[in-house]
Amino acid sequence: MEKKSLKGRYAFIITVVLIAFACFSARLVQWQLMQSDYYNDIALTSTAYTVKTEALRGEIYDKNGVDLAVNITGYKVVIDKIYMNDDKLNNTIVKLVDLMEKCGEKWIDNLPIIVDSDGSYAFAKDKDEEIEDLKSKDNLNMNPYSTAEECMAQLVKKYECSEYTKEQQRNIISVRYNMAKTNYSKTQPYTFAEGISENTMSVISENMQDEKGVYVESTAIRTYTNGTVAPHMIGVTGLISADEYSELKNKGYAFNDIVGKNGIESAFESYLRGTSGSKTIEVNSDGTTTVNSVKNAEPGDSVYLTIDARYQKVAQKALKEAVQEAHDYAKETGSDIGADCVGAAVVVLNIKDFSVLCAASYPSYDLSKYYDDYSKLANNKNLPLFDRAFMGALAPGSTFKPMVASAALQEKAITANTIIDCEGIYTTGGLKLRCMGYHGGINMFEGIRESCNVFFAETGRLLGIENMDIYAKRCGLGVKTGVEIAESSGTLAGPEYSKQMGSEWYDSYVSPAAIGQSDNQFTPLQLATYVATIANNGVRLKTHVVDKVTDYSGKNVVYESKPVTMDNMGVSLKNLKDVQKGMNMAANSYIALDDFDIQIGGKTGTAENSGSDHANFICFAPYDKPQIAIGVMVEHGAKSYVAVNVAKKIMNAYFHGDGLKDIPKTNKDGTVGNKTTESSQTSKQDSNG
Questions:
Q1: Cis omega before residue 664 (within 30°)?
Q2: Under a CB-based contact definition with an 8 Å cutoff, are residues 632 and 525 in contact?
Q3: Plot region of 429 (φ>0 → left; ψ -120 to 50 → alpha; else → beta)
Q4: Are the beta carbons of 432 and 453 closer than 8 angstroms?
């Protein structure tokens, strides 16, 4: 019975399968034979293309909502392959270029070949990478020594523009070459020009209305309203590179997307970018188009920094004046000392949470002119593009001594009242380290106040390099502070670094290291973090420049920075209070602070190097209830007072409002906090569809 039952079941299953197969076969015959003309007509009469729409990039503000990197409504000229007749493309380009030049506007022109004064083709200056790319196997596949004329001969043939003048040929090729590089296609329109004026928009629209495939549309333009405020920190955006595309394509990036290149624009790219939208366009055989579906783009999130634009401007002015003070010293003394001073930087931290209140680097630049001025900036020997505040590591000099004192006290290498005799020179271990004075027998408090090299050379010997480096790292010296953008880890002198450099470390080297020389090199960011740690009773928090991230409207917080403990010096409160007292005694001895009415803890440092001494200063204020910590470095500043004056001007601004009268705390339009301007609203609507 069971065998008969199983046979029946198998037969039933086979019958069902055969019936299903017969139905599918019949339907397939119907589609391919009986209704083939119908479906063929559909295929021939319409084609659908999905085109990406841009997302509005999130904006960047200071802690008070002052505009730093925002969007305004602008206009761009687009060539759309869906509507463009390829046979007319060259003529269209010539006409567009002519209109742009008459309006005095620029178009996107990246071809590294020009027509020189003799009417010949020549390679553009400072375009070596672009020229190499043009000749590469991915493009013209020409020999590295090929001339501009030879390259253009191939390009003229490729783009069929031999009947045009040389200038017109060059312009046609520039556009079409860039089209190819940015994947111009029916799903990828080409941006011919962007950021054009309203007048040019009108001229293009009027003169190109009969040209299918060319139109002007509104778009969001990245604008740096306060372009001189913290440009190194903000960063810039630009067209995605081949390497970036290879890394980001799996995250939905297209070959012609705009991405953050450095600074906050890069570090918070995932927040700022937003989500692209799309629209599906159906093109019929008669050329008519229909938009069938639209997916709205979602704007990116906005980033609020911890910096205050007002203090930033005060700091930038103070740094410029510090460099001038060094030059003035050289003139007054009739020497070269200070004449080689070209750069300086300062970082100010809020001790409560180690947020960066300002971080200025001099010389600097204007973000709003970055691309226009790039060649000049990149070739400037004073390196305005270099972020000295976060990346510029220099010898700290005597600013290192409070850390050495803290470690030595904790390790019981000395006590606060240990007496070390200074006769102006330190010779232990075969060294000859000179001191700035003859201090006689002094203790730790006096050692910090007098900045006695002999006292700290001996203290360093008693402490040992291993202990010294352990405590230094706990303070944030020789390690990264955790800040969100690029920073240098600096260099910490010791056996570890010597081994990396392939050199030998000797015990006698500890004494030069203890006075802030040897291989020690730190950034202003690290100095500020280090002194903030001492002022914070030994607790080092994560240094940060981002306060919060909100949605584009500014109403909903999606990320907020909170204090994060990175390390602890491991120094007792009593020992730290003794070091703080020594720093207070030192600050009270500086002539430059005679007229400053707030008690602070501080330490100067002049670091020897190949030119004039670097002038450095660290401090925290007020002394009894610390609020801010400052690290200043003036390259070849020669005299420590030039660094002290930078901190003094910032403290006067912070505690007394000096210099803030003419610096607004609000946005340009008078609003405070995150703003949604009319132009931003318009941009969002355009982006969404």
A1: no
A2: no
A3: left
A4: no
DSSP structure string for 484-528:
SS-----B--SHHHHHHTT----GGGHHHHHTT-TT-BB-HHHHH
Query: How large is the angle between the packed helices 465-475 and 401-410, nearest 10 degrees?
Result: 110
Residue 678 predicted with pLDDT over 50: no
> What tokens were used for 218?
């509104």
Beta bridge partners of 283: 47, 289
Eight-state DSSP code of residue 554:
S
Q: What is the mean pLDDT of residues 139-146?
A: 93
3-state secondary structure of 72: strand
What 8-state DSSP symbol labels residue 392?
A: -
Higher pLDDT among residues 402 and 29, named by residue: 402
**What's the rounded Cα separation, in Å, for the pair 579 and 70?**
45
Size (the chain), residues: 689
**Termini Cα distance of the chain:** 70
Predicted confidence band of residue 31 (pLDDT cuts 50, 70, 90): very low
pLDDT digits (tens, 9 = 90+) for 177-204: 999 988 898 888 899 998 898 899 999 9
| Cβ contacts of 154 within 8 Å, gap of 6 or more | 140, 142
- Say if strands 60-61 and 302-305 run parallel, antiparallel, or are unpaired: parallel
From the list 449, 450, 422, the residue with the least C-alpha distance to 438 is 422
CA distance 272 to 370: 20
What are the residues facing 559 on neighbouring strands? 549
3-state SS class at 14: helix
C-alpha torsion 517→522→528→530, nearest 10: -70
Q: Report residue 480: phi and psi, to 5°.
A: -75, 145
C-alpha span between 501 and 598 (Å, rounded) = 44
CB 89 within 8 A of CB 314: no
Work out the number of other CB atoms within 10 angstroms of the CB of residue 655. 15
Which residues lie closer than 8 Å to 517 by C-beta, 6 or more apart?
395, 397, 607, 608
Average pLDDT over residues 636-644: 97
Q: Which residues pair with 633 in a beta bridge?
A: 345, 616
**Paired strand residues for 297:** none
Residues 6+ apart with CB under 8 A from 597: none
- d(C-alpha 185, C-alpha 642), whole Å: 59
Tally Cβ neighbours within 10 Å of residue 156. Answer: 19
HSE (CB half, 13 Å, CA atoms) of 83?
A: 17
CA–CA distance, 83 with 399 (Å, rounded to integer): 67
Residues with Cβ within 8 Å of residue 256, at least 6 apart in sequence = 182, 183, 188, 191, 239, 240
Q: What is the mean pLDDT of residues 214-233?
A: 91
Whether the CB-CB separation of 368 and 377 falls below 8 Å is answered with no
Q: Which residues pair with 396 in a beta bridge?
A: none
CA distance 492 to 523: 12
| SS3 sequence of 609-626 | CCCCCEEEEEEEECCCCC
Sign of the dihedral through C-alpha 129, 133, 135, 136: positive
Q: Is 69 helix (H, G, I), strand (E, B) or coil?
A: strand
